[in-house]
Amino acid sequence: MAKKKPGKEGVNWDYSPSLESTSHITILPKYELFINNEWVKPSSKKYFKTTNPANEDVLSEIAWANDYDVDLAVKAARNAYNDVWSKTTPKERSKYIYRIARLMQEHARELSVIETLDAGKPIRESRDIDVPLACNHFFYYAGWADKLEYAFPNQPMEALGVAGQIIPWNFPLLMAAWKIAPALAAGNCVVLKPAETTSLTALKLAEIIKASGLPPGVVNIITGHGDTGAAIVNHPDINKIAFTGSTNVGKIIQRAIAGTGKKATLELGGKSANIIFDDAPIDQAVEGIVNGIFFNQGHVCCAGSRLFVQENIAELVIRKLKHRMDSLYLGNPLDKNTDIGAINSKEQLETIEKYIKIGISEGAEIYQSTCELPGKGYFCRPTIFTNVAQSSRISQEEIFGPVLSIQTFRTVDEVIQKANNSPYGLAAGVWTDKGSRIFNLTSKLRAGVIWANTYNKFDPTSPFGGYKESGFGREGGLHGLGAYLKMKL
Ligand code: NAI
Ligand code: MG
Which residue in the list 110, 125, 196, 301 is annotated as catalytic? Predict the structure, then answer.
């Protein structure tokens, strides 16, 4: 019986553990690089370990690609583009993408368990959100591959060539799908690098791609750390870089490709505002706050990490929020009861803990869930800060963890000004009963995605991307397809 300490608000719920089985998955002790539909040993001869952040167990060893390996992968992609993929009819392209989607669905249970083991995210999320959405991205773009002239009428389009794609650790399989599916639909070949802490589902996807019969070299998946990513960015024969990750690395990439003619889409950090008005459905809004910041341990670029509550309901909302926080179940990510899983890495946990200390030293008032932390692994209690100054670091800087800063407001104009006072502009949430207020805010908030009376909802048909330091370009929808095409001259 899993025990939970009674919360300060008096909640004390016990659950019987309900562990997802791991008997149906295969994780090899060692993974090589996926180039030309073959498993190729890295010329670096180097491997790094990937671990389960919930118990620190080593799951596998992963090849660490160097410049030579990256060059091999880019050459494979270029040859596949010139000799095969650019000559494949759009209808055939579509069939391959559809087949990948179907195979991913067939392997959905395996993919979700591996994602949970490697990334630390709750099985409920990987099973119900990450993997189905990843499949849907392939289905959606499979549909567009042979309809480009309808997608962009009177604008004859062609593929860019070879796309280098570098993805982060917060939604490993989903980010691979966001990047690979539109690239293939538009007729490009791909070299993709997953993040160093979460390579396993991308490598499983490589197995699926091989099984789908996709011609060799169309998709190459190579693993490694930041130096491998930099080698992709700097390779002269890459036509486009698609990157999701930190603003810092986004800036390095922009500098590196300046003047090279390489196209880029950058999806970077965020500090998104979740705004609750006094006419909002309060209980739903509290659920939306929890979903916005504690979902996936706050490892969400569009996390609602800044909460703005209208002053006259602030006390009620914060009381209900604390009550809800105390009923959140933190623990083994494989347990179907678990709401809050493990922080992705030791480094990320240290970053989050550093920010919690900063919040305290800045004079904000802290409240943390009362749940017990497991003895091993990287875990962080859901945390809120009240009495937060607009200029404080915890309300300005991206923390990328389950840490929420709360401020109050009185008027619409005031909250627009406060919400827009951020170097980022990825997403926002608005909770109110008034449609006119929603429309007013959506036109004035400088954010790429704005949710009304909900939060963190994704759909392949809907473009996603940011303003300001949150990056540029859009992924998803037709915009995401257009990002892999150029006008035919
Ligand atoms: P990161 O930006 O270093 O890593 C993202 C990806 O970029 C990984 O695949 C990494 O290997 C690669 N990379 C690293 N250096 C590179 C370089 N010089 N050239 C090309 N590729 C490179 O992110 P990190 O260090 O894992 O996380 C740090 C912070 O970044 C987090 O605390 C969070 O604030 C933010 N972040 C934002 C994400 C988002 O979805 N927008 C995702 C992950 C992190
Ligand atoms: Mg891992």
Answer: 301
